Amino acid sequence: MPLLQLEGVSKKFGQVVVAEEITFQLDQGAAVGIVGPNGAGKTSLFGMISGDIRQDSGRILFEDQSVGSMTAAVRCRMGMGRTYQVPHPFERMTVFENALLAAQQGAQAHGQKSYDLAFAALERTGLAELANRPAGSLGLLHRKRLEMARALATGPKLLLLDEIAGGLTDPEVNELIVIIRGLRDDGIAVLWIEHVVRALLSTVDRLLCLASGRLVADGPPSEVLASEEVRKVYLGGKIINEAAI
User: Fold this and answer.
1) CA–CA distance, 160 with 164 (Å, rounded to integer)
2) What is the pTM of this model?
3) So what's the pLDDT on residue 231?
4) Same domain? 68 vs 189
5) CA–CA separation, 230 and 234 (whole Å)
6) How much of the chain is helix, strand and coil, in % rounded to 5?
7) What are the pLDDT digits (tens) for 184-202?
8) Domain end position, chosen among 155, 180, 209
9) What domain range is 102 assigned to?
């Protein structure tokens, strides 16, 4: 049974189509990347999966249960964790308190269990030594890591990563790749939107390409990136794997 299934999912904002009959599935423990130009509908797709946006038509199933009418909070408790392109931690709270709140609200954990989930998430993302630092004092790399730690503290079966490598240096991206590979190896399914294609190629086994709200390719990364249709959706008609698109 697939962990996540989308069946003919569509969405419009006025006359703007952000999703048109999107269908795919994701298995437990799979690592799948999503590429596409700006405005392709990638983040809107995450919004529909996580419950921040309601689809107009089609079905979204998580562990074979339809979740289309469920709130984002309910989906989080079911096992969906999500990061956002721009991290917005609670800046006056410590790094640990941010993770603890995620464990308590997202995982509905209490007492020692919530502390364990929070600290494990910080350890996993390399933030344990910064646990008592105010979140507002963190630089971009550590804010990105805290964004991931908060998602992990909810105990996800599926982790939705939205351009988590954006704005980072090459060495910082490399550190991030190691973390995400470890999550994948531990059986957490990863669905990752990213413009830094080399990060995806180092981590995922499959790529999806979105353009104008349509799924134009789905398959092994090498085949997707070699696709003429995929190349056409990018300015210049070519993809450079070692750099951001």
Assistant:
1) 10
2) 0.93
3) 87
4) yes
5) 7
6) 40, 25, 35
7) 999 999 999 999 999 999 9
8) 155
9) 87-155
